[in-house]
Design a protein that fits this description.
Elements lengths: L1 H7 L3 H33 L4 H49 L3 H7 L1 H26 L1 H16 L1 H48 L1 H6 L3 H53 L5 H25 L2 H16 L37 E10 L9 E9 L3 E6 L5 H8 L7 E6 L2 E2 L5 H6 L1 E4 L8 E2 H5 L8 H10 L4 H4 L7 E2 L8 H13 L5 E5 L7 H14 L4 E6 L2 H4 L4 E6 L2 E6 L1 H7 L1 H13 L1
Parallel strand pairs: 3-10, 3-11, 6-9, 9-10
Antiparallel strand pairs: 1-2, 1-4, 4-5, 7-8, 11-12
The structure holds adenosine-5'-triphosphate.
GO molecular function: ATP binding
Protein name: ABC transporter ATP-binding protein
Membrane topology: Multi-pass membrane protein
Length: about 600
Amino acid sequence: MRYFLQFLKPYRKTCILIFLTVLLDVAGALLVPTVTANMLNLAAAGSGITPILHQGLIMLIISLLAGFGALTGSFLCARLSARLGRDMRVAVYKKSLTFSAADFERFGTASMVTRTLNDINSIQSAFVMCVQMVLPVPVMCILGILFAFRIHPYMGYLVTAVVILLLTAGFFIIRRAAPIFERLQRFLDRVNTVLRENITGVRVIRAFGKETHEEGRMGRSFMDYAQSAIQANRLFAALDSIATLAINLSVAAILYTGGNLAGSGAMEIGGITAVTEYAIWILFYIMMAQMVVIMVPKALVCMERMAEILSLEPEIQDKPGALSPSLPSDQEGRLCSPAPASVTENETPVVSFSDATFRFPDADEDTLSHLTFQCKKGTTTAIIGGTGSGKSTIAKLILRFHDVTAGQISLLGTDVRDLPQKELRDSIAYVPQKAWLFSGTIEDNLRYGNPDASREELLCALDTAQSGFVRQLPDGLSSHVAQGGTNFSGGQKQRLSIARALAKKADLYIFDDSFSALDAKTDAALRHALKEATKEAAVLIIAQKVSTILHADQILVLEDGKAAGLGTHADLMERCPVYKDIVRSQMRDA
Ligand SMILES: Nc1ncnc2c1ncn2[C@@H]1O[C@H](COP(=O)(O)OP(=O)(O)OP(=O)(O)O)[C@@H](O)[C@H]1O
């Protein structure tokens, strides 16, 4: 709630305006029956047409003012709701950009999507409904009861009794509804998770013939959600029936009591119509408010879920004053080394691991242990090792998706934890293990890391990445890319991802198993072209195939997160049994 009020703060004036329009609307709704009663009383007393017409004119003015209030209120409310929704979504999205991989895992992708879209929608609609339906209730009740008392004390007591009865019934129903709505939101998260898995993994499901199994899983999630929704709707139905019964009983009571009072001359005949209308209006508003208030527990749960995201302290944060003036950029946007002048550029390590150790928060053992190596400008460092040996984790640590548990990683002599994350990542071009392209055009994707790149630079990056196929496409650089790049083959996606990285001017290029889908000829041609294109930077290649890294300046051999060897291919063939095993097994397979 605290967070929601913060979002509401900039719109204080609009809120006050909305309240005034609500007042106008409610006052109009109650004054029209009062004027009707006056007209009836005038007619019953046999006064002429002029005073009745006069009352009619007053009624017209009141109706116009009330209509203006209602219309303006609705407009302001709709606009406020849309702006609040936008502000909340932007805040949640911006916050999610600061999350580390571990922070994301706390929520899960499906829940993040539900929280950003569905939860904020629920907050928005509950807010609009509350302003339009709940805000007028106290005003309507107080004014309505006062007006009824003005006509006759008995009528006042009657209306008060009905109001108390309905508010009590509403209170108990809402108390029962809160946990149901909480459950409903959790089930919605689960439906989203299962649905996402089923849609993204549809080919695997079909290939393994698991349609029936998945149908069952989906069915159970839908059933749980449906059962809670039915329970909630039953409560709505109960509330609806109670309110209709209350309205009818109160009208009957008013007609009976009012008739007796009018018959005995204690009350004017028009009073019966007026009080009946007051009661109907009050009960109508209470009924609508209860329908809306029932949504409040759900909205509160959604607010809590939004607050969970907004209040989370990101695991990885920039240090206060992390902006590093010691790392000015050169003309091409690369960070310049803060190394002393005596150190020549070639000797300055772009990346340096010093006894770096890392353990995932939920793991029992270190994923990487005591790694020490350096990647220098103009050289290629390769990392090879078995599956799960920690190769990709090294790339993630350099990019600060995680922080080392012990030891240190430096970029151009500065601990990466002392650099602003933006500055750090700006100086690195990264090709992730899973090639991912964004929907749009090839050009949009290539410009992702370097929006100012010229067309020639983009074509050059494509050529280096052996993506000549782009030139053959009818639309060339403007060719459409589907979400995730699904309209390209695995190898094409990899090459486009490599071209995207190359289009960015960086101090360090990281290729995480990025050549795996390439045939041997393309792989060799790409590595040859890469040497020239990245000669001003350091290159880190993570690979499974020995042929990809054979000519690297140094090769780090990883075994269970530990360095089993570091050297050139020839060195390692002489003294690293783990490397020799890898080479032999791949030769045998070949
Ligand atoms: N988020 C995580 N939480 C816990 N453990 C993880 C997480 N991500 C990876 N691991 C574990 O860390 C280890 C190293 O993973 P990593 O992805 O670095 O391996 P890799 O050598 O790149 O493997 P591959 O060659 O299969 O890509 C693995 O045992 C993996 O199970």
